[in-house]
Design brief:
Helices cover 37% and strands 18% of the residues. The chain is an alpha/beta fold. The protein folds into three domains: 198 residues, Rossmann fold (3-Layer(aba) Sandwich); 80 residues; 79 residues, no CATH class. The chain is globular.
Length: 409
């Protein structure tokens, strides 16, 4: 059966489900990640016909010799369609875990570009087959309901809303859309390399197996909706957030699901630790996992505290406005040439004031440093001497504890 192109009305309906999107203004474009491949080029064509003010962000991973030329060619093709584009080139990455680091670096570059353009929305071109393959791989790893809900149409990540309007569209229809529009695209040879598990799954899944993934996802989403409501009520009643980036948990909140999500939040991680590790930590009642530490509350108070561990706090970044540090804090002060953001670390003990904030929490706070000397600490946080110079940091753990996506399936 011949694949039909995606119509403009269809795409507008897909986007309407993902609102709010904000006004169609030059100062607030809708950005989209465009690799130059068939999926993202089709997204660009459809988005360019749907909305007046859009911006394509073309990432050159610099992992292949020809990647820069392909990115430049993609920008030219977009320009011919009347779609403005920015080419973003990633820096050199160390070997080992290359795909994961490339993915993280790509999103960081895309997020920064969105903010620079005044955009709060980023479109990506994941389609129905991508969803099926993701579900199959998660099932292989033994994912629970949360993982088997698959990719969401809308999620919040960092400072942008990540939108996937094409999750109900077959990839063959996206190629048909490009052919109808007379638009060429690039083919990434890695998409045919069976050394990658996703390529194997893509090439080997049968139509029956793909349909089974849809059925599994529907059941998982229904189950997860109920769990999310229960979790939100539990956290609201029994978890107490502290502005210094730690939490107090009443005994009623010590479930594996709550603890796992809090570890992800406090540790500034993209994903929660595996369920078995969380269960072991909960049973032990104290210990470290996912860059977070669990310890019983003191002073005769029943419950636990969870805070960022003092180890592995070696990230040092330039003190630029909007810079994120340690996956937890974002600097909102002015650019400070020559200064860097790093952990308060061992200096915290000598700067402590009072006992409102436990001493173990303070070393993981961000601070500005210049030439090895402390320049400033975050304003509005307790536990540090009031005479210290202050600058603005806000908590930005990337995703909320609950409600970061729609579980309606």
């Amino acid at each position: 059966m011949k694949a039909e192109p995606v119509t403009d009305d269809e795409f507008a309906a897909f986007m309407a489900r993902l609102e709010p999107l904000g006004p169609d203004e030059a100062g607030h474009p809708v950005c989209m990640a465009v690799s130059g491949g068939g999926d993202s080029m089709a997204l660009a064509v459809l988005a360019g016909r749907w909305r007046r003010h859009v911006m394509a962000l073309v990432v050159d991973h610099a992992l292949r010799p020809e990647s820069a030329e392909e990115a430049a060619l993609t920008c030219c093709r977009l320009a011919a369609l009347g779609i403005p584009a920015r080419q973003l080139t990633l820096g050199t990455m160390k070997p080992g875990g290359l795909q994961k680091r490339a993915r993280e670096a790509r999103f960081e570059a895309l997020e920064q570009a969105c903010v620079a353009e005044g955009a709060s929305v980023l479109l990506v071109a994941h389609h129905e087959a991508d969803q099926e393959e993701t579900l199959w791989m998660r099932q292989e790893r033994g994912s629970g309901d949360r993982g088997l809900c698959g990719m969401a149409g809308r999620t919040v990540r960092g400072r942008v809303a990540l939108l996937r309007p094409l999750l109900e569209v077959r990839p063959e229809r996206l190629r048909a859309t490009l052919r109808q529009a007379g638009v060429a695209w690039c083919e990434d040879p890695s998409n045919q390399n069976r050394r990658f598990r996703r390529v194997e799954v893509r090439q080997d899944l049968t139509s029956e197996q793909r349909q089974r993934m849809h059925d599994i996802r529907q059941r998982a989403c229904a189950s997860q909706r109920a769990k999310e409501r229960e979790l939100a009520a539990l956290v609201a009643r029994w978890v107490r957030w502290q502005p210094e980036g730690w939490v107090q948990l009443a005994p009623e909140a010590m479930t594996d699901d709550v603890l796992g999500r809090l570890i992800r939040l406090i540790g500034g991680q993209e994903y929660a630790p595996d369920r078995q590790s969380v269960e072991m930590l909960r049973r032990a009642g104290q210990g470290a996992l996912g860059r977070a530490c669990l310890a019983p509350l003191r002073g005769g108070v029943s419950g636990w505290m969870l805070y960022r561990e003092a180890r592995n706090l070696d990230e040092v970044v330039s003190a630029r406005q909007g810079q994120c540090w340690d996956g937890r804090w974002r600097y909102l002060g002015p650019d400070r040439p020559g200064a860097v953001i790093a952990a308060l670390g061992r200096r915290a003990g000598g700067l402590r004031k009072g006992r409102v904030v436990p001493a173990c929490v303070l070393p993981s706070l961000p601070a500005l440093w210049a030439g090895g000397e402390l320049v400033a600490v975050p304003e509005g946080l307790e536990g540090l001497r009031p005479d210290l110079p202050r600058v603005t940091f806000v908590w930005d753990g990337g995703t909320p504890l609950t409600g970061e996506r729609d579980w309606n399936g």
